[in-house]
Amino acid sequence: MPFFWTHVKNSRSVKISRMTGLILDSSTDTLILAIDQPQCWQTHKEAARIGSNLFPLIDAFVSEELSYIAVGRGPGSYTGTRAAVAAATGFSQGAGIPLILFPSPLAFLPVGDRVAAILEIKGAKMNYILFYEEGALREMRAPLAEILPELADLDAVASEQPLPELPHSPLHFHAEAAISRIGAWAKGRVASTASENQLTYLHQI
Asked: What's the pLDDT tens digit per position in 49-62?
């Protein structure tokens, strides 16, 4: 079954420099593969259909040793999130390098210094919100009405649907900004904490 490409930049096998990591996320219907230094990336549509082909894709994308692997831990698709984490775990154990889990919406934040991403938690009157404020991350779960004043003060808010009275931006992989943010998050950690290693899905509160 063919893959559907949405973007490729410098997608040939990459020679890894010191403290260079692989970034992987399939919490949405788009699989993201990226190298943070020098920046290059691939995105593949219909991530859930890739399944066992994830390992060959990673092998083809990276040709030398990695310093670490950073993988999105959700919230997002149950199947996609677990597939990416399983693949990243296998690679990190085989290579003997750190595995860093990051909140997947970090890959889909708007460009800006003070921004946020909002996801609806299915089956609950609740939203997941990831704040990014001058390099610091903050996660929370709350009804949208409770946090509207705080969101209104931000530069931009990414969500699936426009939200009234908020500086709206669509949930989108802004590659260069996303890779820089995730790389900085990963390099600040030798290993993820227990709470950071907890996978989350959009049906959870």
From this structure: 666 678 888 888 98
pLDDT of 154 > 70? The answer is: yes
- Per the structure, the complete domain to which residue 152 belongs is given by 109-170
State the pLDDT confidence band at 79, using cuts at 50, 70 and 90.
Answer: confident
CB 81 within 8 Å of CB 199: yes
User: Which residue stretches of the chain are H helix?
Assistant: 54-61, 78-95, 144-152, 175-187
CA distance linking residue 111 with residue 88, whole number of Å:
27
Tell me: do 35 and 101 sit in the same domain. yes
How far is Cα 25 from Cα 101, in angstroms, rounded to an integer? 10
Q: Structural domain tally of the chain?
A: 2
In the predicted structure, residue 150 carries a pLDDT above the cut 80: yes
Say if CB 21 and CB 35 are below 8 A apart.
yes
Asked whether residue 71 is domain-assigned, the answer is yes
Indicate whether 164 and 180 sit together in one domain.
Answer: no
Pair (38, 93) in one structural domain: yes
